[in-house]
Amino acid sequence: MEQKEENTMELKGVRILEINDVFGKIANADVDIKTAICIANNLKVLETPVKILRDKQRDLLDKYGEKDADGNLVEVDNGIRITNMAEFVPQMEEIMGTDIEVDLKKIKLSALENIKISANDIRVLNGIIEDEEDTKTEE
Question: Is residue 131 part of a domain?
Fold first, then answer.
């Protein structure tokens, strides 16, 4: 993740989808009003890039996904059955690896201390969660 202006970050498409999913999980948690507004604003910022990324994913699945007699994508245990992985994978990697600038506001670690969140979700939010102790040592 490359840090630009104070809140502008350059993130890969895959990271934007992960961050959006985590914010979606914690959006209903009981947090103070400032944190709730920050999470809501971050979700709003991510809305357009997430829609574009998901539309591009859907287009690739429509193009390379196997379809049944009714024209519906064939689902298997881990997703959609792909007919041409050699062409599908590099195109999906390109979409997910695209650098996208977003203006996300940081969230104070103390604001999340009373909610349950997995270590993996914390990993996803790395760089967006701000530890007040780190801020104090930088001053």
Answer: yes
